[in-house]
Amino acid sequence: LNLSGGQPSHADINGGRSIIDSSDQDIQTGRGRGHGTSVQSVAAADTNDGVGIAGINWSSPIYVSNVFGSRSFSQAAQEQIDYARARGQRVVYNLSAEYTVDFNDTALANLMQQNAATALFLIASGNSQNRSTNVVSNPANFAGQYGNVMAVGSNNQDGTRAGYSQFGPELTLVAPSPAAGIPAANINGGY
User: Fold this and answer.
1) What is the b/e burial string over 152-171, where b = at least 16 CB atoms within 10 angstroms of the residue's CB?
2) What is the pTM of this model?
3) Cα 40 to Cα 18, 74, 142, 162, 166, distances in angstroms
4) What stretches of the chain show up as alpha helix (H) in DSSP?
């Protein structure tokens, strides 16, 4: 995300709903390729403003958190859950990442189990050209164990599975991604 005055500078996700704590390095301008910006726009782009796309929920706050720094997935999720709980809210936690090795994250598993009534975890199933696509990798495979976890795969515009997307019994749903030509905001202000 690029910021202007402490809020995202993209015209479609600048409704003042982003919760950003610049002291914990959640926002690092120019870092990465803007995948989080695309995901945020699909989830919560402003609507009825004559700009770009409409997200699936354009009135909820968006807590922006970088999980690729010094914090673990579970630490970042706990931060968001604590924030929501303190305000009497629920949280949808998106994680577009996977472990590069087989690793059983017991801290994340415990967090999922303990927050079943508060948190829904949406976890990408795939994102790797280097791993097998016929098995859902960790942590998306937690969808097979917990009812508040969804493993999300990706398909192409013609409905076929995207080459980087995994499949297996834990897979909850598939949807087209910006990589398949679906419009989504990008870090440069376009779509």
Assistant:
1) bbbbbeeeebbebbbbbebb
2) 0.80
3) 10, 20, 23, 21, 22
4) 35-44, 73-86, 106-114
Sign of CA dihedral 178, 183, 187, 188: positive
Q: Give dist(CA 105, CA 9) in Å, integer.
A: 35
CB-based contacts of 182, cutoff 8 Å, min separation 6: 42, 157, 176
Q: In whole angstroms, give the CA distance from residue 12 to residue 30.
A: 19
Q: Tokens 């472990």: give the residue.
A: 99
Q: Who contacts 95 (Cβ-Cβ below 8 Å, separation ≥6)?
A: 67, 73, 77, 121, 122, 123, 124, 139
User: How many Å apart are CA 55 and CA 39, to the nearest integer?
Assistant: 10
* Lookup: tokens for 191: 């779509």
- Residue 7 pLDDT class (50, 70, 90 cuts): low
- Measured from the Cβ of residue 142, the count of other Cβ atoms closer than 10 Å reads 22
Residues in the chain: 191
For the segment 20-45, the average pLDDT, to the nearest whole number, is 63
CA-closest candidate to residue 143, choices 117, 116, 163 = 116
In the predicted model, what is the mean pLDDT of residues 120-127?
83
Residue 147 has what pLDDT?
Answer: 95
Q: Report the alpha-carbon distance of residue 150 to residue 156 in Å, rounded.
A: 19
